[in-house]
Design a protein that fits this description.
With about 170 residues, the chain is an alpha+beta fold. The chain contains seven helices and six strands; from the N terminus they run αββαββαααββαα. The strands form three sheets. The protein has a two-stranded antiparallel ribbon with strand order 1-2.
C-alpha cells in the first residue's frame, strides 16, 4: 500500500469514527439522524464516507442481536454503498445473500414512508421482524410499527413503490 493510500485510509478511519460518535450521540433522546445522512443507490448512507448503517455491521443485528461497529479491513461495496463488518465470516455471509441483511426499504423509516416521506432511519433505532431489518428515525416510529407490523409493512410497501423511483440512484 502506498503512503498516500495509507494517509487516505487513516483520514477515512477518522471520519468514520467521527460519524460513529455522531451516530451514537444522535441516538440520545429524540433519536435524530446525523445531518450528513444521504442516499446512494436508494440505500441510506453517510454522505462523507459512503458508509451504510454508519459503519455498523448489518449481519451483527441478526447474529449478535444488537448493532456492532464493523471494521475498515472487512468492507464490501454493494448497491453503491460501503458496508463494514466485524469479521470475514459476517462479510462472507453478506456477500452470499445481501438481500437478507440490507435493511428493508434501504434503511428508510417505514413509518415515515407511510406518510409519503423518505426519512432515513437511524442504525441504533431498529427492529428485526419477519427476518428483515427495519430502521426508524425515532423510537416512537419503531413502537408504532411494532404495534401492527403487518399493516405497517403493507402501507410502507405501497408508498415505497411511489417513493423509490423518485430517489437519486
Amino acid at each position: 500500500m502506498t503512503g498516500a493510500r495509507r494517509q487516505q485510509k487513516a483520514k477515512l478511519r477518522g471520519l468514520v469514527l467521527a460519524a460513529a460518535i455522531a451516530g451514537l450521540a444522535a441516538a440520545a433522546p429524540g433519536g435524530r439522524l446525523p445531518a450528513d445522512a444521504a442516499t446512494t443507490g436508494r440505500i441510506v448512507t453517510d454522505s462523507l464516507t459512503g458508509l451504510a448503517l454508519s459503519g455498523f455491521d448489518p449481519v451483527a443485528y441478526f447474529t449478535e442481536r444488537r448493532p456492532q461497529l464493523g471494521e475498515g479491513v472487512h468492507e464490501l461495496i454493494h448497491r453503491g454503498a460501503v458496508w463494514r463488518f466485524r469479521n470475514d465470516g459476517n462479510r462472507a455471509a453478506f456477500a452470499r445473500d445481501p438481500d437478507v441483511y440490507v435493511p428493508r426499504f434501504g434503511g428508510f423509516d417505514p413509518v415515515a414512508l407511510t406518510r409519503g416521506v423518505a426519512l432515513p432511519g437511524h442504525p441504533l433505532i431498529w427492529l428485526i421482524s419477519g427476518d428483515r431489518l427495519f430502521l426508524f428515525s425515532k423510537p416512537e416510529n419503531r413502537s408504532r410499527f411494532a404495534a401492527d407490523v403487518e399493516r405497517s409493512v403493507a402501507a410502507a410497501e405501497h408508498r415505497w413503490g411511489e417513493i423509490e423511483p423518485t430517489l437519486v440512484p
